[in-house]
Amino acid sequence: MSGLMATIQAAVHIAITSQKIQFTTKDDTHYHGLLASCFLLSLLILPMVKRRVYEIFLPTAGRARIYVLVCLGASVTTGVLQLLRILFRNIVFGRKSVRISIKPHAEDIVCAELRLPRPWTVRAGERVTLGVPSVGLFYLFQAHPFSITWWEENDEGKASAVFLLFRARTGFTRKALNCLEPDREYWAWIDGPFGPSSVHQCGSTRDLGDYGHILMVTTGIGIAAQLPYMKELLQRRREAGVRTRRISLVWQLDQTGDYECARDWLQYLLKQDDGYMLNFSVYDPLGKSQDTRKFGHHELITVYSGKVDWTQVLTEEMQKRKGKILSPHNVGFA
């Protein structure tokens, strides 16, 4: 009864005071008074809500234990399945488990090679989660996601080694650069591969090979996301599995050393390009020479000084386009 009387008196005082002043939440006194009023009002409402809610959930109280057990069972099942998947991917009797070796490049760029005990057919856009205990004790059970940049295939066409390309920032990537010696193998474990999404005829997503002309735009270390698609398209082109007739890569470097990390792979792609489908344009904003330079197989890598004129590039590509054009792009990432 005393609580009810206090609430009524407070409501009367609030009503009288609100007639004398103009209420605004910008005033701390008014704002805190509003909060106090809400709490007082809740003292009247909560008992009624509590009674109704209790009556609603009373019949299900006996089944709460079943719900908890079901959730616990689902969690344990998914955990066991993930553990089995990791063991399947990393352990093969008679072979070494996953081994990692790194090759540092300029500007803190790292190329990590993973030797796989159980090869699989890699698709462009796939990613794995990586753990390297040698980086530190706390990294033993940590998994870090990376996109697959490149892969080497065995006689069966499956990847016996995959390559990850990233720029060391902070945390795991910085630890990997500082703690792992170049060209030395370390034990590692992976989970995956994950992605990419499947393309169905009834869906809205189209396959990359359905486009006759593909303009790839990237900056800095973002080249790591474009390389696997070019590699896959060339392989499918030799098998007459795509409609693509021209692939143009426009790559603006963030730092001068970015080009070195992908140079060998670009050269390899050009040598595999029997139909002259590829055309690479590299822009170096920090370049001192104003001359245009040509490199690579058949001199199909053109290096310009300065930044990209995107309007001019798009206009030229539209004039040269062959069939439907697609422009996937990727900005530099770690």
From TrEMBL:
GO terms for molecular function: ferric-chelate reductase activity. GO terms for cellular component: plasma membrane. Residues 92-200 form the FAD-binding FR-type domain. One of its GO terms (biological process) is intracellular iron ion homeostasis. The keyword Plastid does not apply. Keywords: Membrane, Oxidoreductase, Transmembrane, Transmembrane helix, Transport. The chain crosses the membrane at residues 29-46, 66-88. InterPro entries: FAD-bd_FR_type, Fe_red_NAD-bd_6, Ferric/Cupric_Reductase, FNR_nucleotide-bd. Pfam families: NAD_binding_6 (PF08030). The keyword Transport applies. Belongs to the ferric reductase (FRE) family. This is FAD-binding FR-type domain-containing protein. It comes from Aspergillus tanneri.
